[in-house]
Amino acid sequence: MATAPRPRTSTRDPEEVARRLTSWLAVRLPGAEAVNVSVPESNGMSSETLLFDIEHPEPPVRACALRLAADPSAYTIFPEYDMPRQYRTMRLAAERTGLPVPRVLWLEEDPGPLGAPFFVMERVEGRVPPDVMPYTYEGNWLHSATDAERARLQDATVGLIARLHDGVPASEAEFLAAPGQGSALRRHVEAQRAYYAWVVDGLPPSPLIESAFDRLAELWPADEGEPVLNWGDARIGNIIYDGFEPAAVLDWEMAALAPREVDLGWTVYLHRFFQDLTENFGQAGLPGFLRRADIERRYAQLTGHTPRDMDFHTLYAALRHAIVMLRVAYRQVYFKEVAVPDDPDTLILHHASLRAMVQGSYGS
């Protein structure tokens, strides 16, 4: 799938973090101890997750998960990590929609205890479609499921996105609006331009990403639509499932105020990203799963809103993902895991599909 080794995710010492966590917890809940502290194998390269249990006569919950802002010394994926923003978003989504958002327990804004701000939430048991190797590959629970089971999971997933979009008044999500002037979509795209500029600062730029921004301008929607609370990283790999029903909606660090289609485009493209990789590897993948037309149809049934300008929004999702992939690659360069090639576009794992989308030759 990739020629480079899997990038490191942290420079922190897990044992030191566990010791400091126990000290912090004893202040928040006298007599408590953090035990069975572990780092999940699926830990990403952005905010970090720690799992632990609370040992106490009367704990608020027994099993916990902690989301810790990225280690500043580890060449972070994003310029900043606003943990209070994530904490507030999760509470708002849970209170307004009834979605299975993990119950948040404590927010710590002081970087002193663990070296960066963090929050603690209740840990939810279940199973998550894997990213490595992707769920589109053979040998995992979702790939082995029946078509009917996957359809059930797909409908339930689109349903929770619909509930989020319909359930939170936009006025209560204004704190998620990108800075600047103009519409929510304009500001969202400009924030991505700023992110790209940060990624390539002092490094080779990506002609492909810049051409994708140009293509976006050509496809700009005539009617952008009203903004809603977007989950931001709306994909099945960020959901814990109980059987084939969502049990917990995770990873809110990319939440935003934007048109509905921003989330839907991300859901569509992130599956296509894995499906394309799988087909390139010689496997069939799951071509009948999470198809764009099916997602659009189900979403329209649930909300009364027919998704529009999805060519624009699918391209935008691929572009946003490309910027993240480029940052991940430059992070590998920083840690001397890979070298910068003559063509920096090849650092983007899905450069071929993004180029096809820019050229208008990528299937829907």
TrEMBL record:
CDD domains given in the database record: ACAD10_11_N-like
Pfam families: APH (PF01636)
Highest rank taxon of the organism: Bacteria
Domain Aminoglycoside phosphotransferase: 82-289
Matches recorded under InterPro entries: ACAD10_11_N, AGP_Transferase, Aminoglycoside_PTrfase, Kinase-like_dom_sf
Protein name: Phosphotransferase family protein
Organism the protein comes from: Streptomyces aureus
